[in-house]
Design goal:
The chain contains six helices and 13 strands. By secondary structure, the protein is an alpha/beta fold. The protein has one domain: Survival protein SurE-like phosphatase/nucleotidase (Stationary-phase Survival Protein Sure Homolog, Chain: A, 3-Layer(aba) Sandwich), CATH 3.40.1210.10. The protein is globular. The protein binds manganese (II) ion.
Length: 251
């Protein structure tokens, strides 16, 4: 398979380097990744400055942009052929529950999905990539098992527990869990005395019943959540239409 690989931790991050290495054993891998850590930028596209794609080797580029920029430019300009699959990761840390809305890892995959390709976002649910080699082997098995010869247009968010191979319990289809509101913003002062603010860490897990990604990973499973990009709350349209009153047609 021809695979476009990206991430949000940057071109030189351990997670993408390792994943490229194992995917390349059986697949044709093309990389377009940010030149610095762009975690948390979500689906942002850069519209106020030009983007440079610096060739780092055969089929390898780093860009001075976001994860979504990288996939967008790669698919439109850099790759000579359309890939079969877009892969993002392996991220340094989990992307589960509400966090997926902010995730650059998920966004890179989603950009591929929005451009009509199947896409997978891989994350390792611990900082510093413990047991990255295990996660990378599982990622390549996942790609082989689910996508070889199949052309399904879907977006999957995969989170690996950070465990040795013997403690992995297999794959589990999940939904996104929920978190409480983020921890408070941390205010401070810069050396010039101007006020500065640090966004607080994510809130504690709120909804983590058996069906969620949080629960699956905590129990030693690899969580696989099918995502879509349409945020519409379909079941609310009828009630909203009634509240808006007569004369406002729901089309
Ligand atoms: Mn990241």
């Amino acid at each position: 398979m021809r695979i476009l690989l990206s991430n949000d931790d940057g071109f030189t991050a351990e997670g993408i380097v390792q994943l490229a290495r194992v995917l390349s054993r059986r697949h044709e891998v093309w990389i377009a990744a940010p030149d610095s850590n762009r975690s948390g930028v979500s689906n942002a596209l850069t519209l106020d400055r030009p983007l440079y794609a610096t060739e780092m080797g055969p089929q390898r580029w780093q860009l001075n942009g976001t994860p979504a920029d990288c996939v967008h430019i790669a698919l439109n300009c850099l790759l000579p052929h359309r890939p079969d699959l877009v892969v993002s990761g392996i991220n340094n840390g989990e992307n589960m529950g509400d966090d997926t809305l902010y995730s650059g890892t998920v966004a890179a995959a989603m950009e591929g999905y929005l451009m009509g390709l199947p896409a997978i976002a891989f994350s390792l649910a611990a900082r510093g990539w413990p047991h990255l080699d295990v996660a990378a082997e599982m990622a390549v098995q996942f790609v082989d098992r689910w996508f070889e010869g199949v052309r399904v247009h879907e977006l999957l968010n995969v989170n690996f527990p950070a465990l040795p191979a013997t403690q992995h319990r297999g794959l589990k289809a999940t939904r996104l869990g929920r978190r409480h509101a983020a921890e408070p913003v941390l205010p401070g002062r810069d050396p010039q005395g101007r006020p500065v603010y640090w966004i607080g860490p994510p809130g504690k897990v709120r909804s983590a019943d058996d069906t969620t990604d949080f629960a699956a990973v905590a129990a030693g499973y690899t969580s696989v959540t099918p995502l879509h990009a349409d945020l519409t709350r379909i079941e609310a349209i009828e009630a909203l239409s009634r509240r808006l009153g007569p004369g406002t047609a729901s089309r």
